[in-house]
């Protein structure tokens, strides 16, 4: 974490790549209290994502980051639940038996 | 002419009226709404491909573009289209998520959901014409019917044990019997599981404390038993031991649990204005099945049933005659997702695991910030 104040912070996330960074960036962009966000992977051989989050001041960068991670988690959990429900009902309607 | 209900907080675009049904929330002018929700396929370039909308993007129009869980729940939909047990393929529609989430899911399926695959091959004898390293590579790519969750990771200098390694043996010799040749084809069915562990523990340094039969009561084998691994002539033989460990597709594709996983955007074919008379007949002839003539007017049927014609729609939409009438669009938040498993695990289980991995990533990072 590199910062001079709480509202404009660059996070350095190790062992992650676009898989995590892009959804998180999407969530941050959709947060009205975030004035700027972006990430860069400085070198493909280095497994580090540099995440820049600047906020309008209503919320610290850390809080915005946490909120976005929780947002992505919620989305994944919802997809997971819906997928399980849809699979069950699809199999029931198709009348096919599936082994787990 | 103005539309009072929707136009209240909106700047007028060259005074053009837009008849829209009354909605609870203020809506964007249709041309901006189209930009927000659809990719418009042009002859040589697609328009409006960006999707990373900022929360305050339409603030000047009084429209909140931020994300909320409630809004997400309202717009989210998941529908299963095809579940093909035989080919371990699942196709489903997922509506109301951003491309970044769909892509994360795809990336995890291909490169992060773990599986077991052959990593070390110890050759006792190989007199066939296929070189040891070639055969070892081929063996690595054989998908194995075993749940990787039952095993631990073997990292760095970890000692091979019944908890992190599966041992398989292959011992085959080709011979002549009368006019027939026996064992000319070495198939994946020849790979036999050795639940008691390595038969050459001094060479392989792999010693099991107990039998693996407890961990794998149903045994294990390659998912398909007719993969051709090598061919032999009489007098040639292959004798080897293959050790499988848990890994991820990002290290080597042999650990990828999917043959492939992909998504595409939902296509829509739109008639921009009414097409009647001869033009309707001509258009229906150009796009048989996709466009039908009803009461002398052209109508669009289901674009997804006519995938093969969609690129033709794109071409027609750039031709002088049809450009004012027809357009191909793709909805940005509607993905047709296909997962083709290698057969190790059913695709719906792979998806559940991929989502768990994504959730785990977020939760781990939350601990640190």
Write up this protein.
The complex is a heterodimer of chains A (100) and B (369). By secondary structure, chain A is of the alpha+beta class. Chain A contains 2 helices and 4 strands; from the N terminus they run E-E-H-E-E-H. In chain A, helix 1 (18-29) packs across helix 2 (61-94). The longest helix of chain A has 34 residues, at 61-94. The N and C termini of chain A lie far apart (44 Å). Chain B has 369 residues and is of the alpha+beta class. Chain B has 2 domains: 35-54 and 67-113 and 257-369, Gyrase A, domain 2; 115-255, DNA-directed RNA polymerase, insert domain (RNA Polymerase Alpha Subunit, Chain A, domain 2, Beta Complex), CATH 2.170.120. Chain B has helices spanning 4-7, 30-37, 69-75, 99-111, 132-140, 201-204, 277-286, 307-316, 347-368, and strands at residues 38-41, 46-47, 77-84, 89-95, 115-126, 166-173, 175-177, 180-182, 185-187, 192-193, 228-231, 237-247, 258-271, 291-294, 297-300, 326-341. The two termini of chain B are 54 Å apart. The chains are: A alpha+beta (100), B alpha+beta (369).
